[in-house]
From TrEMBL:
Keyword entries, A-Z: DNA-binding, Transcription, Transcription regulation
InterPro entries (alphabetical): LysR-type_TF_proteobact-type, LysR_HTH_N, LysR_subst-bd, WH-like_DNA-bd_sf, WH_DNA-bd_sf
Coiled-coil regions, chain positions: none
Domain HTH lysR-type span(s) in chain numbering: 1-58
Highest rank taxon of the organism: Bacteria
The keyword Transcription appears for this protein: yes
Organism: Devosia yakushimensis
Descriptive protein name: Transcriptional regulator
Pfam family membership, one: LysR_substrate
Entries under PROSITE patterns matching the protein: HTH_LYSR
Similarity annotation: Belongs to the LysR transcriptional regulatory family.
């Protein structure tokens, strides 16, 4: 029984189809189909029921999937154990936030590639929450306040932000003193998100409104500089503008709660060693305690 056939079956089972599994494995759909065909022929059972919408596990496929996944994980761990000097090889496909990823995380990914010359790193930058399984990612780096999910999450560092506005906006409209007053101001937003603030040991939440929206934080910085409203932005995007006086910090008595930087991976008992190494590298740079 070929290990590539087992790995391919596990990927198709987890991704729900041949197309996303092929993307994750970095091979063509025809290769995935041939591997599945050989595996089913060898076992003498149908593992997947192919449909126009994807592939669903048969009863035999459900029973076989966990055994196959354990075998693949054990062989991968054995391969990594015998690599010299802890080297990594293969491919790490990772989703990274667009707003802060190029400046904050790209240098760390470059450092990982430098340390592991046999590892191929493919990073995709976007502020949307990608579907790790369907889109074939090994993991993602996410920042902020994460909603509950069935994904495996590891916090690797803190993430700070604040409310800012231009001096022109404050002169024309004033600055809010409380979260309630924020509702009468123009907010610069990425969507329909709620903003959180701390007051003592309490967390206050408001649903701001505004006419200017963008799908990433970097694009909101020029809007804040132009005096279009108040923005909740990461420190790394606004520190230089605060230092120059182009932006000012507002509503300082109600700071946002400290958010986090997280490594998120698909569910599974055994995280890939390349994901573990990435997690350790981010902790090393970001200073999160074990």
């Amino acid at each position: 029984m070929d290990i590539e056939e087992l790995q391919t079956f596990v990927e198709v089972a987890d991704a729900g189809g041949i197309t996303p599994a092929a993307r994750r494995l970095g091979v063509s759909k025809s290769i995935v189909s041939r591997r599945l065909g050989r595996l089913e022929s060898e076992l003498g059972v149908q593992l997947l029921a192919r449909t126009t919408r994807g592939a669903a596990l048969t009863e035999a496929g459900v029973a076989f999937r966990d055994h196959a996944a354990k075998i693949v994980a054990e062989i991968e761990m054995a391969r990594q154990t015998i690599l010299p000097n802890g080297d990594l090889r293969g491919r790490l496909r990772i989703a990274v936030p667009l707003s802060v990823g190029p400046s904050q995380f790209a240098p760390m990914l470059a450092e990982m590639a430098r340390r592991h010359p046999q590892l191929h790193i493919h990073a995709a930058y976007s502020d949307r929450f990608v579907d790790l399984i369907a889109e074939g990612f090994d993991c993602s780096i996410r920042v902020g306040y994460l909603p509950d999910s069935n994904l495996m999450v590891r916090r690797v560092g803190p993430f700070y932000g604040k409310l800012v506005a231009s001096p022109d906006y404050v002169r024309a409209h004033g600055a809010p003193d409380t979260p309630a007053e924020l509702l009468s101001h123009e907010a610069l937003m990425q969507g329909t998100e709620a903003w959180q603030f701390t007051y003592g040991d309490k967390i206050l939440m408001v649903q701001p409104q505004g006419r200017f929206k963008a799908d990433n934080g970097t694009a909101l910085v020029p809007a804040a500089l132009a005096g279009l409203g108040i923005a909740w932005l990461p420190d790394c995007l606004v520190d230089e503008h605060l230092a120059s006086g182009a932006l000012v910090h507002v509503m300082t008595r109600y700071p946002p709660p400290v958010a986090g930087v997280y490594v998120v991976r698909p569910p599974g008992q055994y995280p890939a060693r390349k994901v573990q190494v990435l997690t350790e590298l981010l902790i090393e740079h970001l200073g999160e305690l074990p």
